[in-house]
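Exercise 7. Given the encoded structure of a 50-residue chain, write a plausible sequence.
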């Protein structure tokens, strides 16, 4: 029964690391997209004023 407990904790640990990694990646992707969208909007507004 000891091996099953250790294996269970290993699965929990790997799952937690994967979840945190996915969350950080999603946050970074959303932040980069927002920056890109703001830059495109600023460029569009600058060009449309002239």
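Solution.
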């Amino acid at each position: 029964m000891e091996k099953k407990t250790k294996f269970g904790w290993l699965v929990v640990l790997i799952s937690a690391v994967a979840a945190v990694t996915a969350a950080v990646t999603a946050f970074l992707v959303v932040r980069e997209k927002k920056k890109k969208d703001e830059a495109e909007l600023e460029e569009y507004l600058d060009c449309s004023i002239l």
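Remark. The chain has a mean pLDDT of 93. Students should compare their own answers with the one above.
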